[in-house]
Amino acid sequence: MSTPFLQIRDLHAWYGESHVLHGVNFDVHEGEVVTLLGRNGAGRTSTLRAIMGLTGSRKGSIKVHGSETIASSTHTIARLGIGYCPEERGIFSSLSAHENLLLPPQLAKGGMSVDEIYAMFPNLQERANSQGTRLSGGEQQMLAVARILRTGARLLLLDEISEGLAPVIVQKLGEMVKMLRAKGYTIVMVEQNFRFAAPLADRFMVMEHGEILQEFTQAQLPDRMAQLHEYLGV
């Protein structure tokens, strides 16, 4: 099998003296959609932040296309083709939607053009001149994802993109994930909304107390529902 796009081994992470990840191990192959499942505080967001070098400290191994990044700075990691979409979205209220879109630099080759992004997100083109705060929650979420597509990132770390949004918007975000997967993007999602994540992911990782308890594929999902109900209450 080819070298994984992302390979994590014995990953530990801390915020100050708080030890939040306790030996996380998993691989993500190019073109895969992987979802991290778990209750609040399980370590899912901390895993994404550790991949980007945004936790206080970390040890273990995080390889991107075979290159070790555990000691790399966040801007160096981003240049390897990784884009992080945090739960808080980070839309600048004083800038228009179009200005927000153009804000991040292009860090790697192959980033989507503005025209390609607007073709994928027609709502954003319609609201291009609207201030960031005047966008709906769904439009802000689409904009947050669209920004990292411009940078050239091919591995997308998406944190709770469906949270707090109306079902019709959640459905559109699901269609977006499918489109990105069809274009060859690799995606790691943190999701509390299991119904949203279930049909989208190739593989699922269940986390608890900063560790991965189990891993299973889309094909194994029906047989794991009883366990998922126990872990997640779904």
Tell me about this structure:
- The protein has 234 residues and is α/β, with parallel strands linked by helices.
- It has one domain: P-loop containing nucleotide triphosphate hydrolases (Rossmann fold, 3-Layer(aba) Sandwich).
- It has nine helices and ten strands.
- The strands form two sheets. The protein has a six-stranded mixed beta sheet with strand order 6-7-8-3-9-10, with helices on both faces. A four-stranded antiparallel beta sheet has the order 2-1-4-5, covered by helices on one side.
- The longest helix is centred in the last third of the chain and has 16 residues, at 167-182.
- It is globular.
Percent of residues in beta strands: 25-35%
Kindly report how far apart the N and C termini lie.
34 Å
Approximate helicity band: 25-40%
Write down the secondary-structure element order: EEEHEEHEHHHHEHEHEEH
| Order of strands across the main sheet | 6-7-8-3-9-10
Shape: globular
- Average pLDDT works out at 92
Rg, Å, rounded: 17 Å
> CATH topology, which one?
Rossmann fold
Which structural class do the helices and strands define? Answer: alpha/beta
Q: Output the CATH homologous superfamily.
A: P-loop containing nucleotide triphosphate hydrolases
Largest sheet composition: 6 strands, mixed
